[in-house]
Amino acid sequence: MRNLIDIVDFSVQELKELMDTACDIDLHPEKYSERCKGKKLATLFFEPSTRTRLSFEAAMLELGGSVIGFSDASSSSAAKGESVADTAKVISCYADIIAMRHPKEGAPYVASKNATIPVINAGDGGHCHPTQTLADLLTIYRQKGKIEGITVGFCGDLKYGRTVHSLIAALARYNNINIVLISPNELKIPDYIKEEILDKNSMPYLETTSLEEAMPKLDVLYMTRVQRERFDDPKVYERLKNSYILTLDKLETAKKDMCILHPLPRVNEISVAVDKDERACYFKQVLNGKLMRMALILKLLAEKDACQDKDEKNLVVNKICCNNPRCITSVEQELDNIFKLTDKKNGIYRCIYCENQSIKKEID
Ligand code: NCD
User: Fold this and answer.
1) Does the pLDDT value for residue 364 go beyond 70?
2) Sequence-ordered list of residues with C-beta below 8 angstroms from that of 136, at least 6 positions apart, any chain
3) pTM for the complete prediction?
4) What residues are in contact with ligand 1 under a 6 Å CB criterion?
5) Which of 45, 47, 49, when mutated, tests ligand 1's pocket best, judged by the most ligand atoms within 8 Å of its CB?
């Protein structure tokens, strides 16, 4: 079964096809208005969301399909203790495709292993958010006319900002991309992104705390919200929440055709005055998100029964436990602990659900 759990589940060619379909939907919406007639999308949102859920719902309705689901874990059987695996099996009897958001990292992956219908990851904890990446890629493509050969600055909460993690993973597949990582020291990008994506793909990147210093180099500036809900200590959030605020005067040194993105919701990291600047593209990004979700639903339903290649090599099952408290393995009963050997030389194993590195020695 074809799912979208991680953006790397799709090739560059497939991403291009999705973008082409999204542009065609934009031009000829009437051609698509009945494509999903009789089909149901289940939106299983175990974590609060307005735009992503409504974007999925609008996408399915504009394709002529219908939507069932919930937007709050307390109104689902999870509140009674149901596992993600059981929820996925049950919903497979009611719907044709699932979009799932969950606070635990790896939960949509667990759902995909148990569902008999395609599963889309609509955001799992601080891990990834591949459909936001679809919106981001289409916006970059439409604004810049290309994705290759650009310098992209990510600013804000790079530690918990799942949209950042997924977009970097996607950009790693395009040529000549430069990355600038702008964050306070406490909110730097996780090591697994540096080791598994940036270093492995020899992507040039630099880390800085200064937005002003980075600004003149950037073709795309990706601003993010400091993710309050992921902090254990509210005082740390209070200290960091206003680390970066993009204002019109800070844009004076930026390229005239720089493109400003933000996955939204914005708190105050972009001043409202910036909205009028031609470089502000974050509301276009919202529309592009809906178009890409329409293209995605069409693709996954069309490919429902095609086989997916799975890299089952180098997997270690149940010999070690993931020590990331935000990982789905910390709550889901009966779940195998599965680790993938990602760095043979140094004996580094990573949890296949959340990608956390849990052990550094060779396992027999
Ligand atoms: C993002 C998310 O949920 O990770 N928002 C979204 O998908 N619209 C970014 C955020 O919440 O800050």
Assistant:
1) no
2) 163, 167, 170, 222, 261, 263, 285
3) 0.93
4) 51-52, 123, 129, 132, 162-163, 225, 263-264
5) 49
